Amino acid sequence: MTNLSESLREKLKQHFDLHVFKIIKKQESKDGTKKYLFDVLDNNAIESVLMEYKYGKTICVSTQIGCKMGCKFCASTGVKFARSLEPGEIVEQLLAIERDENIRISNLVFMGIGEPLDNYDNVMKAIKLLNHPKGINMGARHISISTSGIVPNIYKLADENIQCTLSISLHSSSNEKRSSMMPINNLYNIQELMKACRYYIEKTNKRISFEYALAKDNNDSLEDAKGLVQLLKGTLCHVNLIPINKIEDGKFNKSSNESIIKFRDYLNKHGIVATIRRELGSDIDAACGQLRKKEVSK
Ligand code: SAH
């Protein structure tokens, strides 16, 4: 920016960073999903995924380099947490892919590496940049935040008065089972989580999406479905069933198609709207739970 004075340039350099990511690797799935590995310029690398849906292009962004949550079925757990991403680094994932593909992305999901509600302030700032008419100009309705259940920040989010969709990674209606899959449940159990969800619904008038990854002989029986109906009955919600993706060293296996369909039908028959999430990008390890932090190899 040589049209600016040297002193101003120096000032800008001291106070601001321009996050322009380098693409280290780009992979394309046979279903059209694309996975990017970005160099975030401090020896770390993160992944972002671009998916094609009928209603437009959706990006799945990472919010942290690594993840502290320790969910037993997720590949992002397998590597040490390095740091949270800055708001600019969150938005740059979208800008870098738009530049590379020469496209406009219409939807964004906070479902990549990291726990968005563990990087609350930066995620809120990123949403404001995404929303702003002079920024990306993406409506909040086109943005989804997924959380493993950081209860105090669900209350905070409810009070923000933004129109994002909230997804909760539930995965079981029994505390014992959920704790064995997700250590966060030892800190905030299902009852506390549901209380926060009810507050969110009351405050925003928006329905919550509950994510439920089905693992064979673990949480996919009709007993489990019954427990889920009891837990969610009367709640303004939708259940998103995800056939669990096997990860390296993971002890959970994907449920059979038959069990997944039976599980969905049971929920639908008992008044809970449930759909099965279409699996995208699993051949390039870009599906749910398959992203992980990487070191930049020199
Ligand atoms: N930390 C946030 C967002 C990232 S994960 C959260 O926990 O919600 C996005 C979704 O993928 C979550 O619902 C997560 O539980 C799910 N997921 C993680 N590993 C998975 C796997 N191996 N198979 C299917 N879904 C998985």
Short description:
The protein has 298 residues and is α/β, with parallel strands linked by helices. 31% of the residues lie in helices and 22% in strands.
Topology diagram in text:
Elements: H1 6-15, E1 22-28, E2 34-39, E3 44-53, E4 56-60, E5 64-65, E6 83-84, H2 87-101, E7 107-110, H3 120-131, E8 143-147, H4 151-158, E9 165-169, H5 175-181, H6 190-204, E10 208-214, H7 222-232, E11 237-243, H8 257-269, E12 274-276, E13 294-295
Parallel strand pairs: 4-7, 7-8, 8-9, 9-10, 10-11, 11-12
Antiparallel strand pairs: 1-2, 2-3, 3-4, 3-13, 5-6
Helix pairs in contact: 2-3, 4-6, 7-8
Bound molecules: S-adenosyl-L-homocysteine.
Residues 69, 71, 73-74, 111, 115, 146-148, 169, 211, 213, 242, 244-245, 247, 288-289 line the site of S-adenosyl-L-homocysteine.
Question: What do these coordinates show?
Answer:
This protein has 8 helices and 13 strands. The chain has one domain: TIM Barrel, CATH 3.20.20. Helix 2 packs across helix 3 and helix 4 packs parallel to helix 6. It is α/β, with parallel strands linked by helices and 298 residues long. Helix 3 links the parallel strand 7 and strand 8. The mean pLDDT is 93. Bound molecules: S-adenosyl-L-homocysteine (SAH). The site of S-adenosyl-L-homocysteine (SAH) has 18 residues, from strand 8 and strand 10.
